[in-house]
Amino acid sequence: MAIELTLPFTIIVFILGIAFGYMRKGKEDKWGLLKWGVIIGIILAIVFWIIGFFIGGLGGFGFWAFLIYLIVFIIGVYIGDVVEAKMKK
């Protein structure tokens, strides 16, 4: 049951990561992008973990869901950054 709750949230976090990476303008500062990606990823991971906890009682897979959300968001941020760089050229 927990995987059914975690997958839609993971897709949402991935799409938000791509949007954040794409909309972040300015010089392509990879360290700054990673830092803000981690900060926002942690916030989103906590929010979706809490939502999953109240909906399913398990909070996804607990710490593992939190970690997956964070990693997926950071991957999405870098994909969005690459797409933005390609669109500019």
Please report the total strand number as a whole number. 0
Q: What structural class should be given to the helix and strand makeup?
A: mainly alpha
Low-confidence stretches: none
Distance between the amino and carboxyl termini = 45 Å
Instruction: Please give the largest β-sheet.
Output: none
| Strand content bin | under 5%
Q: Which bin fits the share of residues in helices?
A: over 70%
Cα shape: elongated
The succession of helices and strands, N to C, reads HHH
- Mean pLDDT across the residues is 78
Number of domains: 1
- Computed over alpha carbons, the radius of gyration is 14 Å
What does this structure look like?
By secondary structure, the protein is mainly alpha-helical. 30% of the residues are buried. The chain has three helices and no strands.
